[in-house]
Structures are given as C-alpha cells and as structure tokens.
Amino acid sequence: xxxxxxxxxxxxxxxxxxxxxxxxxxxxxxxxxxxxxxxxxxxxxxxxxxxxxxxxxxxxxxxxxxxxxxxxxxxxxxxxxxxxxxxxxxxxxxxxxxxxxxxxxxxxxxxxxxxxxxxxxxxxxxxxxxxxxxxxxxxxxxxxxxxxxxxxxxxxxxxxxxxxxxxxxxxxxxxxxxxxxxxxxxxxxxxxxxxxxxxxxxxxxxxxxxxxxxxxxxxxxxxxxxxxxxxxxxxxxxxxxxxxxxxxxxxxxxxxxxxxxxxxxxxxxxxxxxxxxxxxxxxxxxxxxxxxxxxxxxxxxxxxxxxxxxxxxxxxxxxxxxxxxxxxxxxxxxxxxxxxxxxxxxxxxxxxxxxxxxxxxxxxxxxxxxxxxxxxxxxxxxxxxxxxxxxxxxxxxxxxxxxxxxxxxxxxxxxxxxxxxxxxxxxxxxxxxxxxxxxxxxxxxxxxxxxxxxxxxxxxxxxxxxxxxxxxxxxxxxxxxxxxxxxxxxxxxxxxxxxxxxxxxxxxxxxxxxxxxxxxxxxxxxxxxxxxxxxxxxxxxxxxxxxxxxxxxxxxxxxxxxxxxxxxxxxxxxxxxxxxxxxxxxxxxxxxxxxxxxxxxx
Amino acid sequence: xxxxxxxxxxxxxxxxxxxxxxxxxxxxxxxxxxxxxxxxxxxxxxxxxxxxxxxxxxxxxxxxxxxxxxxxxxxxxxxxxxxxxxxxxxxxxxxxxxxxxxxxxxxxxxxxxxxxxxxxxxxxxxxxxxxxxxxxxxxxxxxxxxxxxxxxxxxxxxxxxxxxxxxxxxxxxxxxxxxxxxxxxxxxxxxxxxxxxxxxxxxxxxxxxxxxxxxxxxxxxxxxxxxxxxxxxxxxxxxxxxxxxxxxxxxxxxxxxxxxxxxxxxxxxxxxxxxxxxxxxxxxxxxxxxxxxxxxxxxxxxxxxxxxxxxxxxxxxxxxxxxxxxxxxxxxxxxxxxxxxxxxxx
Lengths: 602, 346
Ligand code: HEM
Ligand SMILES: [Cu+2]
Hints:
The complex is a heterodimer. Chain A is mainly alpha-helical. Chain A contains 18 helices and two strands. In chain A, strands 1-2 form a two-stranded antiparallel ribbon. In chain A, helix 7 (224-257) runs antiparallel to helix 8 (265-279) and helix 13 packs antiparallel against helix 14. The radius of gyration of chain A is 24 Å and the shape is globular. Chain B is of the alpha+beta class. Among the domains of chain B are: 128-232, Cupredoxins -  blue copper proteins (Immunoglobulin-like, Sandwich); 249-340, Immunoglobulin-like, CATH 2.60.40.420. In chain B, 38% of the residues lie in helices and 19% in strands. Chain B contains eight helices and 13 strands. Chain B has helices at residues 2-22, 38-71, 89-117, 229-240, 249-258, 302-311, 313-316, 329-340, and strands at 128-135, 138-143, 148-151, 153-157, 162-168, 173-177, 181-186, 193-197, 203-209, 221-227, 283-284, 288-290, 299-300. Chain B has a five-stranded mixed sheet with strand order 3-2-1-5-8. In chain B, strand 1 (128-135) and strand 2 form a beta hairpin. In chain B, 41% of the residues are buried. Chains A and B meet through helix 3, helix 8, helix 9, helix 10 and helix 11 of A and helix 2, helix 3, strand 7 and strand 9 of B. The complex binds protoporphyrin IX containing FE (HEM) and copper (II) ion. Residues 134, 137, 173, 209, 211, 213, 217, 220 of chain B line the site of copper (II) ion. Protoporphyrin IX containing FE binds at residues 28, 31, 34-35, 55-56, 58-59, 62-63, 66-67, 121-122, 369, 373, 376-377, 380-381, 419, 433-434, 455, 458 of chain A. Chain A: The chain crosses the membrane at residues 12-34, 54-79, 91-114, 141-167, 179-207, 230-250, 262-283, 295-320, 332-354, 366-392, 404-429, 449-471, 541-558, 564-582.
C-alpha cells in the first residue's frame, strides 16, 4: 500500500526501475523470439503475422516502456539529490506520471490477450495502420496505450524542468550543475516540445480508427505523408530524449572513476544544448525516400551531419577526462568505457545514413537496424547499466556484486557486437528490415545465425544481472555514504540509501563538483546553508493511482465503443482531480529530533 | 609530426583493403556493394567515401581509448590525485574543426548527388517509361507508351535510361533494386514518385519491397531483367500478341470462371497480376524460383511452383489477396500445365 501511495521521488524511482525492468524483459523476450525466427532461412517458428506483432511490440515496448522508464528511474533517484533538493517540484504529479505510464504500458500489453497485438511497426505508418488495412483491435491498443503512457512522460518531463529550474540548493548556479542534471534538464525540455506532437498524431489516428475521421485517408482528402511528418517530428527528438541522459550518466561515471573532473565542462553543456536543438531540425532524414524532393533532402542531409560535431566534442571530452586520470575499472566504469567506442560506431553510421543518396540504399534495411541498435543498445542500454551499477548503493544501500557484474558486462557486450555488427553487412547485401523470413541462397544465412547467437548471449548477460540483484538484495544494507570513495557530487554527501527528506540541512554549494571541492579542502561534509529545523514533507496519496486506473478503464471503453465505460473511467479520473483540488492538504513536518539518518526502506 | 604521417600511411592500405573487402560482399545481382549500373555506382561511391572517413574516425577514437585505458589504469594502492584539468581550448577547437572539415568533404558530393539523382526523365522520348504499381504483395509494371502491362518481372533494354513512376494501389511499399539503384517509396493518393536508373549489363537483378506492408512483406520480391534492344522489342511485341485459351473446352471454362475474373492473359484486363508469358518468367509469385535443379525450399520447376501456388496461395504468401480457389488436383495440374506452357520468345 505504501508503494501505491508514495510521492517520494526515490521510491517512485524504484517503481520506475521495477516497471521499466519488467517491460525490458518482455521486450527482450520478444527480441529473442524474433531472432529465433530468423536464425535460418524460411523458418516457421512463428507465423508471418505473429512476427509482425512481435516486431511492433518489441520496438514500442523497448522505446516507450523500457528505455524511457529506466531513464526516469535514474532521474528520480538522482536528480533531486544532485541539486541538493528535498524532493521534486511536484511530488503528486511525479506519482501521477508514473502511474499513467504504467497503466498505459499494461494496456498496450493486454492486446496480446485480447485477440492480437498491434502489427504495423512501432512507427505505425498509415495506411497500413488505418482501419482499412488493420482491421483488428491491435492498432487501437497502440494508439490508446501510447497516448496514456505518453501523458505520463510529459508530466514527468515538466516536473523535472520545474525541479531543476527552481529547487537547486543555494550556490548551485546552472554552470555548477552536474552533467547528468544538465542532460536531464535538456531532455525534459525536449519532452515538453516533442510529446505534444505525438499526442496530436495519436489523437488524429484514433479519430481515424474509432470514429471514421479522414486525417490520413487519401480517398477522402487525407494525407499519409502527414502521419510520417508528425511521427518523426516527435520521433527524432525522442531518440535524443533517450540518449542525452545516457551521455550524462557516462560523464558522471567516467569522471568519478578517473578521479578527475570532467574535461571541457562548458563545451559539454554547450554540446548538449546544441544536440537538443538540432534534434528538432532533422526529422525528415527518416523520410529521404518519401519523395520530398532534392532541396528538402539536401537540407536535411546537411543538418543531420552537423549533429556529428557536438557529438564528437563529447566523445573527445570523455577520452580526455580519462587522459591523465587514475582509472578504476568497476563494473559501472566498464559499461561507461565500453560505451564510448560502441557509441562512436553507432554515431558514424548515423553520418553515413545522413548522406541522402546513399541512404536510398540503406533505408529500411538491416543497416539501419544495426545503426539504431548501436546507438540505442550500445549507447543507451550500456549507459543505463553503468548508471544502475553506479547509483545502486545510493538507491538501495547495497553494492551490487562486482564479479557477477563483470560477467554481465562481458556477456552483454560481446553478445551485443556479435548481434549487431554483422547486420550492417546484411543490410548492404540487400536484406530489408522487418522481414519475417528470407529466402535461402541469398547469402544471408551465416550472418543471421551469428546474430541470433549474439542475441542469446545478451539474454544470458541480462540473466546474470537479475541474479546479481537477487543475491544483492539478500545482503545487509551497509553501503557507505560515498561508497566509490571518489564521489564528486552532492548525492554522495548523504547516507546510502538517502533518507526520506534527503538533506537534513540544505547544503551550500561553493563550486562545480561541490562535494569534491569540500573534500579537497579537507572536509568530509557539506557546509549547511540553513539551520536545522522542521522539514516539510508532502503527504502520500492514492489519487494518482486511481486517476490512472480511470484512464485505463476509459481507454477500454473507447476501443470497444462502450461509451458508458468511457464516461465512467473519465468520471473516476476527473473525480480524483476534483478531490485533489478542493481538499486542503498541507503535508506534514519532520521535526529535528526525529531526524535519523536511516534512509528509505527499499 | 613525422610520426603521425607514418600512422596515416599505414592506415591507408588498411582502409583500401577494407573497401576491397566490402566490394566482394554479397551476390552481384542483389548487393548494394556490387553495383551493376551507374546510379548504384554513384551511391556506392558515396558509401565508400563515407565509410573511409568514418573508419578513420573510429580508428582514431579506438586508438586513443585503448591508449588511455592501458596507460592510465589505477595501480593498486594508488592514492594520488590527478591534476584536475578544466579543459583545453586549443584541443577543443581542434576537435570541433576537424569534424567540420570531414563533413564538408562528405557534404559537397552528397548535395551534388542528391540533385543529380533527382533528374526527371519522364518526358524524355529516348527513355523507357515504366509505371510501377505496388500491391499487397506483388508488383505491376506498365509500359504506357508500348501499351503493355506485366507483373513480377520487369524487362528492360540495356541501352536506355529507365524512367520510373512509382505508386501504390493500397499501403506504403518501397521499390528497390539494390544492385541497380536505391529505393523510392510508393505513396497512396495522387503522390507519384519518380526515379531513373540504367542497367548496361544484361542479366537478372533482384528487387525487393523495403517498406513494412503486411504479413507477406518479406516475400514481396521481383526481378528486373536487362536484355539487348532487339530482345526487348521482341518481348514487347510478344506481350501484345493474342494468346489462345486451352483447346480443351472444359479447361478453358474452368480457367475463365476461376482465374480470368481477376487476372488477364493476352489482351484481357484484370486487377490481379497479368499472366501473359508467365511460363518464361524466372519466378512464380515473385519468390518461388523456377529451376529444373531445385536446391532450396522455395525452388521448383515452373509446373511445380504453379501447382504449389494454386493449391493454397496463402500458404506461400500469407495474407495475400488471391485466396484459396476450390479446384480439384486434376484441375490444378492441367491449369498449371497450360500456364507453364505460356512461354514467349524474345
Ligand atoms: C536483446 C537486445 C535486442 C535485440 C536482440 C533486438 C533485436 C531486434 C530485431 C531483430 C529487430 C527487428 C528488426 C527488423 O526486422 O526490422 C529489432 C527492432 C527494433 N528494436 Fe531491437 N533488439 C534488442 C534491444 C532493443 C532495445 C533495448 C531497443 C530500444 C531501447 C530496441 C529498439 C528497437 C526498435 C525501435 C526496433 C524497430 C522496430 C520496428 O521496426 O518497428 N531494441 N530489434
Ligand atoms: Cu510491400
């Protein structure tokens, strides 16, 4: 019950971790099934239509229900601590964001049991996703599930914007913010601008599907290319929403374990902002073959190539952070160091794709599959692993097992390159993506087999991580404040796990890498910025949970045209909003004599 | 400084070797790495240029990363604190400027090529005009000037520019012949896309649909056959010649009621693939390969492939619009035989 009503950002972070991790396992299982189907030509392990469902659900699940929430897990666990805040700006909203994401994700996955999952690809291009060619309910689940989950993400993004702008400890100017906080800040801004585009697109598609509107129906004056634009105006920034926080994690981890400050901090900040900005300018590079004409293709080619410049700055800054450092290879750092060359490989294929005439060959082939997995798995997932190993003690008060961690790293890392490196060649040799089978004799057999073996290794790596979690959770909570001993930022000044109120006294920040600065001056704690006093805390609430259930119910009503159910669901949601608005709740206070540096129970 | 040039000198053959390796990759009639016509060649040129630049970047990063990882690993018991450098403007400018230079090297030919490949030959009287229409899950090729319609296999002369107008009859597909030219989407509605290519070497090239279009997207293959001009002219003539129905009245009747309601043979019309000359095509349904020496599951003689298709089209291509037709084994045999014998000389 405590977990259903919590508004504590650290617990919400753990909820995100559990839910995101769960969906990651589902998405991973789908990936393995996809790879089993493709291990040899003309295989009939799954049928063509099941394959398309697996493919669609794998992409959708990994992006929206695994990667995003896992990042939100890290954001929630770390950002308020890094800026010396006692909580996020809107704790109630934070909980609401989580529950809407969760029920949106559950709704999507219910489709498996309701007679067919969506099968038009995670991009759901019309007309394939229109009622004319996708008759079942599958795509309806996609439209409504994503809509609800998207609301959650948008709420979360706005919350972090407000938190980072308003809740920084005294002395923490923008240019003293840790890199991870910076990337979360930019990511939140991207969420604020990108997700409304998705929401609008999904509403339009929902109207087409449920109420016979004609936004995308060419027979009645609609336009299918419109959907592609809307989708990618959201979809391209989305990949930067995903990768920027991973950049942040890598910056923190590499700098800590090199015992050195981040090289070129201000150029890092500048590069992050620039990447965020350019991320919005290049969506049409997903549409070079749509026939937008040479002027558009040339412009979007060049704009896309430009992103390589700030990204390059980041790569070299990381390398030079390690240069001259004293590098310690913990599991977290192995993931971070493994990230750098891997991500570079994904980045350079991105530049190759940006050259439009060459992209006429790459587009929609396995080359693209290889590219985006290099950036998403090789970038984002390695980043998330690094972050989890790094902050696990701060989240749970226990250190993950290093030996198992290294086994996990090597299995996952080798498996990853085995799976995706050969796919570049498959694509260039003529293998289109999203195919459920391929004919024999085309020269695709061996590489597909290698790819499948790699995927299984990645699966084993993930299992090693799960075992690690189980073993670790049986050990006592004895992690130190600063378990890596080289902690540089504020989260390492408070107990592991962090107490409910984070900071008994708000710290005074006197420079970049605030904690490191104090340590160098021979202190082992921050100077407080305020006297010890009662701490105001928000009250827990069940309303976010119920509101999300309301939306969940309304979603079903919409899909099955049961308007009473829709209305009932919405009444629940709006009823909760009303209750929340009229009921005064001032929270409670923790008095100074109750302060016990024990930490949240996890 | 000397030292660095040495490294470059050593890298060059490595890169050249890589490019060579690349160009030996895959089947000549299918791989974008083994271009067989000027358009694909131009695209391959851009690929080689970008791969070289990118391999250079990757190698530089790998070398620095390896060096750093080995040189600066913490020795046991090391408690020293490294110098906390803030940054270095000179270095930062270097790694901003070098990528920009590399991008200019790639950007200029890219732009040239974007405009070059967008050239419109649809009004050119010397070009062969072909209207490509994609269907779930087959391809229709119409030669408007010649008044010919065919399916699954596009015959072209090897001495002319082929000018394509691509559209779709249903969902999005994408028209792609890797060894001849990159792909172009087929959009619904009035939105017609154009492209061109040439196939100077005679031969058969494999084409594919590259946009997820439903369950049988994977099987939406087609062939492009480049022949000399005289053969091409003979083919056009043969396509237009009348075709006799089977002599057997019973069989002709079965054929007319069951097949010709959708398909056309000879000068008939129909919305399904045109069957004129199907006996001399390389495949049935675009992906059952006709050969007397079957090695793979999707190969067989024309007769066998036709029988397999007629028994249950959905077994071959899931979700396709033909659907199973109620025919006795006897009828399937004789219809297949008739179709297999519908050969044209060219
Ligand atoms: C065990 C790890 C993974 C494996 C083996 C794997 C494998 C695959 C395969 C085989 C495809 C189908 C490619 C095609 O036919 O077009 C695919 C598609 C995709 N994957 Fe993964 N994947 C993995 C992890 C991930 C992760 C972590 C993400 C994102 C965070 C992701 C995102 C996607 C996306 C967006 C698609 C495209 C789906 C579509 O075409 O609609 N994958 N993956
Ligand atoms: Cu298709």
